[in-house]
Every structure is written in structure tokens, then in C-alpha cells.
Amino acid sequence: MMQLMKSRNEVRKSYAQDDERQQFIDRYEKPLRAYFIKRMPAHDDVDDLMQELMRRMWSSNGDRLIENPDGYMFQAAANLLKERYRKVGTRNSAIRELSFFQAANEEITPERILQGKDELRQLEKVLAELPPRTRTVFLLHRFEGFKYREIAKRIGVSVSAVEKHIANAARHLAERMGRE
After folding, report:
1. Per-residue pLDDT tens for 131-142?
2. CA of 86: how far to CAs of 130, 163, 164, in Å?
3. What is the 3-state secondary structure (H, E, C) of the chain?
4. Which entry of 36, 62, 127, 136 is 20 to 30 Å from 4 by CA?
5. What digits encode the pLDDT tens for the residues 6-21?
6. pLDDT digits over 39-98, tens only?
7. 164 with 146: CB under 8 angstroms?
8. Would you say domain 17-106 falls under CATH 3.40.720?
9. Distance of CA 5 to the CA centre of its chain
10. How many angstroms separate the CA atoms of 180 and 176, rounded?
11. pLDDT tens, 101-152?
12. Does domain 116-180 bear CATH number 1.10.10.10?
């Protein structure tokens, strides 16, 4: 009998958790989707981001009281985006390096030289579209090899601001270089 009572309590607790989760989803799904859509060039990734964020929320320690749940959720979403951009940046960097070595094996023809010059002009044009500070931060990091902390100190901003400039520049370049 004691075992049956314990099982019923566990079932009730499970239903209560399901209700809390549904309330949570009802409250945050649309705003978080909008947040991700606004910040992701490929909207295909939004479902993956939502799923990962929910997985993290359900698996985190639920015993602590969160004083500002809205702020907590959107900070968690921002952190997830930062992780995604870092992973994508690392992966794209490796792909670019691989492409470079493959291109070194290509025959250097007048057409290939012309194509390279056109791509360089397009890159310069797209970089010129960026706000000056974003362009400076991006160039210092990607072409001069400065670390985020070094850039932040050099131009007098926070490391977080540097991360935002890099993300904005990368997003802009991906959109513009892919379109034209």
C-alpha cells in the first residue's frame, strides 16, 4: 500500500512538472523564436537552438529560484548563440584553410586571377558597408590576429562588445557575400 501511495505522488509530481513546462513553453516559445530568427542568418537553425535551449532548461537544477526569469531566458539564449557562432566560426575557418590549400593546387590562369580580384573587390565593398568601429574590430581580429581581449583594451570597450561587433560583421559578410 505504501508503494502505491508513493507511485501516485510521483505521478502527480510528474503531471505538475508537465504543466509547468507547458506554461513555460507557452510563455517563451514565440519571443525566443523571434529572438533567434532576428539573429540567425539561416532560419533552419532556429528549431535546433530552441530544442537545445529547452533541453538545457529542463536538465538544469530546478531547485533554485530565478528572480528575473525573462532576463535569465534571454541571457541563456544569447549564450547559446555565442556558442553557435564560435563553433561555426571555427568550422568555417577550417573549411577556408582547406579551400586555400586546394586552390593552391589549381592552375593559375588569367580567368582565375580575374576571379580572385573580383572577389577581393567585393569583399572590400562589403567591408566598407560596415560601421567604422565594427569594421575595425573585425579587421583587427580576422586579419591582424588580435584576441578579443586585446581589441577591447585597444579601443576601450568590453570583450562582450567586441564579440557583438565580430558577430555582426560575420553575419553581414555572410549575407552580402552569399547574395552577390
Report:
1. 999 999 998 888
2. 21, 10, 12
3. CHHHHHHHHHHHHHHHHHHHHHHHHHHHHHHHHHHHHHHCCCCCHHHHHHHHHHHHHHHCCCCCCCCCHHHHHHHHHHHHHHHHHHHHHHHHHHHHHHHHHHHHCCCCCHHHHHHHHHHHHHHHHHHHHCCHHHHHHHHHHHCCCCCHHHHHHHHCCCHHHHHHHHHHHHHHHHHHHHHC
4. 62
5. 455 554 555 556 677 7
6. 777 666 788 888 888 888 777 666 667 777 777 888 888 888 888 877 766 555 545 544
7. no
8. no
9. 47
10. 6
11. 445 555 677 887 788 788 888 888 998 999 999 999 998 888 888 889 999 9
12. yes
Q: From the CA atom positions of the chain, what is the Rg in Å?
A: 23
Q: What's this model's pTM, rounded to 2 decimal places?
A: 0.42
* The predicted structure's pLDDT at residue 156: 92
Unique residue bearing C-alpha cell 567591408: 127
What is the phi/psi pair of residue 174, to 5°? -65, -40
Name, in order, each residue with C-beta under 8 angstroms of 128's C-beta and a sequence gap of 6 or more.
Answer: 135
Q: Start-end ranges of CATH 1.10.1740 in the chain? A: 17-106
Cα separation, 33 vs 36, in Å, equals 5
> Which residue's entry shows cell 585597444?
154
